[in-house]
Structure formats: C-alpha cells, structure tokens
C-alpha cells in the first residue's frame, strides 16, 4: 500500500501536465474539469491555491502540495 506522501506525489505528477514541477491555477482547474461535476468550485480552487502556496509565488510546488494533501487535510468531512 502506498503511503499518503507517495499518493500525493503521484497526484501531483498527474496534475503537473507540463512537467515543470509546479502546479499552476490553470493545471488545477484542468484537473478539476476532468472530474466533471464532482470537482471543486472556483472559490474552492482559489482557497486551495492560497492555502498551499507557502512561498507566495502563485504556484504550488511538490512540497507545498504534499504538505497540504499528503495528510488528508484537503478532504471534506
């Protein structure tokens, strides 16, 4: 069984469509669209980016992503 970190890293790589090691808002929106009606709202996407972007560069790096989702904190109760 994969650890939470390994699962988060795999998701990050799947969402990082250009392979630059950073998730942009556009990449997150594209991943969300792939979920169809099951995905997050635009305001939830904005909140996710804001909460994960620790260095304030407007993108989410691997460690930022793992720090947020690698422990299940992104999931709704």
UniProtKB/TrEMBL annotation:
Keywords: Calcium, Repeat. GO terms for molecular function: calcium ion binding. SMART domains: EFh. Residues 3-38, 40-75 form the EF-hand domain. SUPFAM superfamilies: EF-hand (SSF47473). InterPro entries: Centrin_CML-like, EF-hand-dom_pair, EF_Hand_1_Ca_BS, EF_hand_dom. This is EF hand domain-containing protein. It comes from Nonomuraea polychroma. The lineage of its organism: Bacteria, Bacillati, Actinomycetota, Actinomycetes, Streptosporangiales.
